[in-house]
What does this fold into?
Amino acid sequence: MIAEKHLIILSTNQQGSTAVLCHELLKRVNKNQIVLSLVFFIDANSQLSFAEQENSVLEECRSFFGKVFPMVTCVAQKPLAATMTAEVLYLTGGGTVEYSEDYLTIRNGRQKELITKGIRFPSEGDTASQAKAVFQRIGTILSTEDFAVNDIVRQWNYIEDITGVKDGVQNYQMFNDARSAFYSSADWSGGYPAATGIGCAAAGVTVSVHAVKNARKLSRPIDNPIQVPAHQYSGKVLLNGKTSSKTTPKFERARLLGETVLISGTAAIKGENSELSSDPATQAEAAIAVVESLVAPGNILPENKRFRFNHLRVYIKKEEDAGQIIRTLGSHWKGIPIHYMLADICRPELLLEIEGTGHVGRFLECCCSDAGEALEAQVGGARRIELCEDLPCGGVTPSIKNIKETLESVVIPVNVLVRPRGGDFVYNEEEIQSMLNAIRACKEAGVNGVVIGALKEDGAIDMETMRRLIAEAEGMEITFHRAFDECSDPFKALEDIIRLGCDRLLSAGHAANVNDGRQTLKALNEKAAGRVIIMAGSGVRPSNIASLEEFTKVTEFHSSSHGPNGRTSCETVSAMTHVLY
It folds into this structure.
């Protein structure tokens, strides 16, 4: 099976040298986990500046990792809303990793995968010559590890001066011609890779690939019903290419690999036309519509009914457009990790491009009491941890020692329950202060979010207390916990929680367990209409998760996933997350 992986986005707004910024990001990398690759996005506008900054990054990484050195790639794209950004890819499930100079392999049972770092040869000449040299090296890597060219499932292509023209041929067209030549020896009847072709400010042509052995049996292409496949573009959109060498961009709009959806670089193109509004907010809305059409659950697979984004990477052409585009996308895709880079795009009229990943499997949050349980949950395929202690009383805030140990043990997001005691959810000032202190400590420790809730004596949501807690948790995810199931009016409480701006609501449907509350859960989910995520919890088991999902249409589930020994078990977690297609 495909090895489970998890990507996190690290950003810093600190000022200083490249070494200082890189060191700041590396401090947040979890060395207790297997790090596969890091991609650093840096502000470099010349080859000299890029080379100096890349050397600084590599030196910091060597110092941090020592002999076990993951794939490190630097991309000359200025981060927007940060001084440096990095994507860190971890191995979270089973598998063994072998690192080579510019690629690694992962073996998980009989399955084998390959990931390269960014391959580049900037001294080789123009775009065509560089691309040819890059693909020759990638071909050698694939051959060495007994992969076929059509085992590539995802490819990133960074092209300096992407819209520049030399001798009447656009640089992007030169690259496409070189890619087509490289692909020409393979059978692509199972579809091309997902890919991004995007500009960068320096370093020539850089390509990195992810390949999966026998990919055609494990992966399938995803078309967008409102777009012409890029590899079927007509001649009128293949700009500035010589008639004898014009070839189409050889990629699919997306690919489904197991439960993961690999989303190619996607812009506001309908059919093959990109003659759209030049207003950045309007074009951002058009790009959102294109992406949502691509990942609509029924479009991914006819029988599939679910999809969730894991993360998004957004390229913005003009820095002055960043504010409007970031606000537009952030308002639509709430709670999804997104980072933004300044980069030229292959068509002059396009202002932004979006790529990312998502998954079609069930989203499971596991309730865990310590680092050991959290690691079991991660290996079993859980997407998030809720950490708490003293489960028999309904859970209370874990110790800071427990929080830190758990954060060191897993890389999936950890949300911490903030509850000073068992019993009811009506709190006095001393208890509120203890919750504020706990939230502050969670933020300092680097947890993803907090799980909170407060009621008045009459069973209404305590809006004043909640606002104080949420203000303290600024920048963190907010889950309103099962205090909701003890409120006096669930539908009024739902609207109050939405007004507070909570990201999700954990509920058994105003009942003791999800089996008794399924009808109310369904009604709450319909009433919420996407304004807040409804997460079903209390009594979620492998035996009922499928029917619960089918009936209520909820998209997230919460479970302790205990095995026979009364602790969270990776086997039980896997039984709930596993979906057969």
